[in-house]
Write a structure and sequence with these properties.
This protein is of the alpha/beta class and about 350 residues long. The chain starts with a strand and ends in a 19-residue tail after the last helix. It has a domain of about 240 residues: NAD(P)-binding Rossmann-like Domain (Rossmann fold, 3-Layer(aba) Sandwich), CATH 3.40.50. It is globular.
C-alpha cells in the first residue's frame, strides 16, 4: 500500500516506518520536524516528507494514498497541559480535519494512534476492556476521546477508521523519549544509581514496547477491512500491566548497584488503570507482541550504554519533549501556537 504517516519523525514513527518498508509498503511522511534532530544513535533513512503542519493539511496532501497512519499529536500529559485548548486544537480538531481530508481524497483506511490514557482513573479491580467507561485526568486523555468519537461519525463503507489505544510506551527508538516512565527510570538508574519515583508507586499502568506498537499498526493496516472498521483495540498484552513500584524493582534487578528512591511528597498518581488486550489477541492474531517489560528494560540498558548516554544529554531538550518545545519557543523559532516562525528549520537539539 501507499501509506501516509503523520508524525513519522517522532518516537513511534521512527520505529514504524522501517517496519512498514520491510513489509513492502511505500511510505510518505508528514511532519513539521520538531523532533527530527532529537537522536540517540544513527539517524534512520529518510523517506519523502511533507513539511506541513497538521492543522494545514488538505485533501491534496492525502491523494494517492491507500491509508493514513495518524501519529502526530502533542504527545504526553505535561506537553498537553501547556495549553489545554491548543491540545484540543492539534489532537482533536486537526485529527478530524485530517480524516475528512483523507476521506475526500479517497483514502480507505485511517489508523488513529489513540491511547489508554482515556481510561484515566479507572478502577483497579480488573483490567479494562474497550467497552469500559472513560475517566480521563488530563487534556491529552480527553483529546483522544473527542477524536475517537468524531472519527466514528465519519466511518462509512469507503472510509474505515480504527483506534489503537496504545498502552504506555517504552523502549529504544532512535528518537528517544526520556519523559516516558520506563525510559526515565532506566536512565536514572544507569546515570545516577537511583530509580527515582515521583509517586508512591502503587498506581497500575499497562505497558507496551514501542516496537510492538509499530507491529500493531502494520497488522491492522493489512487485515481484512471487516476486522478493523470502526473498532477500538487496546494495544499491548494483558499480562503486561504493572504497578510502578514493580517497574522500579525490575529496573534495579537489571541495573546492579541502583536503588529505589522516592522523591517529593510521593503522593498517589491519579492515573491508575489496568487494561485487557484480549480483544486484539483474539481478533487480530497477525499481531504477535514480542516484548516483555524485563526484556525491554534490558534493551534500554544496552542502548543507553552503547550510545554513550550522559546525564547532561538525557536531561536536555534532546530527549525531553516539553523542554524541546520550551527551548524552541524561547529561541523565537516557535510561536505561542507551536508554529515555526518565518523560515525556521528544525534546529539541532
Amino acid at each position: 500500500m501507499r501509506v501516509l504517516v503523520t508524525g513519522h519523525e517522532g518516537y513511534i514513527g521512527t520505529v514504524l516506518v522501517p517496519l512498514l518498508q520491510e513489509a513492502g509498503h511505500e511510505v510518505t511522511g508528514l511532519d513539521t520536524g520538531l523532533f527530527a534532530p532529537c537522536l540517540l544513535g544513527p539517524a534512520p533513512a529518510p523517506v519523502p516528507t511533507a513539511r506541513t503542519d497538521l492543522r494545514d493539511v488538505q485533501a491534496m496532501d492525502c491523494q494517492g494514498h491507500d491509508a493514513v497512519i495518524h501519529l502526530a499529536a502533542l504527545s504526553n500529559d505535561p506537553v498537553g497541559n501547556l495549553d489545554p485548548e491548543l491540545t484540543y486544537d492539534i489532537n482533536y480538531r486537526s485529527t478530524v480535519a485530517l480524516a475528512r481530508a483523507a476521506r475526500q481524497a479517497g483514502v480507505a483506511r485511517f489508523l488513529f494512534s489513540s491511547s489508554c490514557s482515556l481510561y484515566g482513573a479507572g478502577p483497579d479491580d480488573k483490567p479494562l476492556t474497550e467497552s469500559a467507561g472513560f475517566a480521563p485526568v488530563t487534556a491529552y486523555g480527553e483529546s483522544k476521546i473527542r477524536a475517537e468519537r468524531a472519527l466514528l461519525e465519519l466511518a462509512e463503507e469507503g472510509f474505515s477508521p480504527v483506534f489503537l489505544r496504545n498502552a504506555t510506551a517504552y523502549g529504544y527508538s532512535p528518537r528517544l523519549r526520556g519523559d516516558l516512565v520506563v525510559n526515565d527510570l532506566v536512565a536514572n538508574a544507569l546515570l545516577s544509581g537511583q530509580v527515582r519515583l515521583r509517586s508512591d508507586g502503587q498506581a497500575w499502568r499497562p505497558l507496551v514496547h514501542v516496537a510492538d506498537i509499530a507491529a500493531a499498526f502494520v497488522a491492522l493496516l493489512e487485515v481484512p477491512r471487516e476486522r478493523m472498521h470502526a473498532t477500538a483495540y487496546n494495544v499491548g498484552q494483558t499480562t503486561e500491566n504493572y504497578r510502578i513500584i514493580e517497574v522500579a524493582q525490575i529496573v534495579t534487578d537489571l541495573v546492579p548497584g541502583s536503588e529505589i528512591v522516592f522523591s517529593g511528597d510521593s503522593a498517589a498518581d491519579k492515573r491508575n488503570y489496568r487494561v485487557s488486550c484480549d480483544l486484539i489477541a483474539a481478533q487480530v492474531p497477525e499481531f504477535s507482541p514480542r516484548w516483555t517489560l524485563r526484556d525491554g528494560v534490558g534493551q534500554l540498558v544496552d542502548a543507553y550504554r552503547s550510545h554513550g548516554l550522559t546525564r547532561e544529554a538525557f536531561d536536555s531538550e534532546r530527549y525531553q519533549r516539553l523542554r524541546r518545545i520550551e527551548a524552541l519557543r524561547q529561541a523565537g523559532q516557535l510561536d505561542s501556537r507551536l508554529r515555526w516562525v518565518g523560515n525556521s528549520e528544525p534546529a539541532a537539539a
